[in-house]
Fold:
Amino acid sequence: MPRVLDGLAAGIGGTPLVRLRRLEEGLGGGELWAKLEWQNASGSVKDRAALSIVRAALAASRIGPERRLLDATSGNTGISYAMLGAVLGFGVTLVLPANASIERKKVLYAYGAELVFTDALEGMERAIETAREMAAREPGRYFHADQYSNPANWRAHFNGTAVEILAQTHGRITHFVAGLGTTGTFVGTARRLRGEKAGVRCIGVIPDSPYHGLEGLKHLPSVHPPAIWDPQLADEIVEVSTEVAQAMVLRLAREEGILAGMSAGATVLATRRIMRRDGPGVYVTVLPDSGLKYLSEPLFALDHELEVRAESPEAPGCAASQPTPRSAPQPTRPRRKRPREESP
Structure:
C-alpha cells in the first residue's frame, strides 16, 4: 500500500533494495543489491544524517527562530538541512565550494537557504574551515552542525540503514560496500552489521586521487579524516578513478534503468571488483543520490560520443556500453580516450 505521511520527516528511511541482475552476471555467482537512497524525502542518503542531527539539536534547544543551523556541504546534506529548515521553521546557512553543480545550487535557493561559496580549488577543506570560522565568530547566531564530527551522523545509519539492510536481505548479507565522504553512512552501517552478523565484510570506497570528480567522496589519505571516521571498521578500502566511475553511471542507466549520481558509479564498480574476487555471496551497496542533480555535467552532454568500458575488457562479464544511435551523419571530431579499469 502507498505510504501516507504525516510530514516530510516520515518520508526519510525505508528505502528500497533492488537487485542489479544484469550487472551481476559473470561475476562468480554473487548477488548484487543496491539501496536506492534518492527515495528519501529530499533525494539523497543525507536526509538520514540531517534528520538525526536536527532532531538532536532541537531536543537541546540549539536551533530555533533566532539561531540558524550552519554547516559545510558539497550539496546533498545542505539540501536535506534546507528542506528540514523549511518544514520545521529554522534558518539554514550553508558553506559550499563554488563548483557545486548548478542543479544543487538551484535546489538550495528554492528551499530558501543562505549560501556562502568558497574557492573551488580549495575543495571541501576550505568550506569546512570557513564554517568553523563563522561559528566561532558568531556563536549566538549559528549552531554549527558539523556533519563531519557529529555522532548523530553515523547513529542515523546504525539505527536505520543497517537495520533495513539486515531485514531486506533476511540477514544473508556477506559484503557491505559504501563510499567515504563524511564516512557516516559507512561507520554507522558497518558498526551495526558487525555487531549483528558475524563474518560480514565492510569495504569503503574512495577516489584514487585528491583531484577527482566524485562529488561527496573524499581521498582520505590526502585530507584530515572526519572525526567520526573509524578505520577499524573497514576490512579494506578500494580506490576508484573518476572516469571509470562515470562510465559505470552510464551502464547503470542503460543496463539497469537506474539514473544514479557519480559516487554510485564508484560504489557499484568497487562492488563488482570485490564480487569477481570473492565469488558467491550477498553484496549490498548504497546509491546515495540520483543523476538528476548532475545533468549539467559533461558526462551527460548530448554531443558526448561515448564508447566506454567501466571495467577492463579482459575481465569476465564486462561489456562495453553501446554508442547512442544517431539519425544522421555527424561532423567528425576527436574521440575521447576510452577509460580502462585497473586490474582488481
About this structure: Residues 46-144 form a domain with the Rossmann fold fold (CATH 3.40.50.1100). The CA atoms of residues 308 and 337 lie 9 Å apart. The two ends are 43 Å apart (CA to CA). Confidence is low (pLDDT under 50) at residues 305-344.
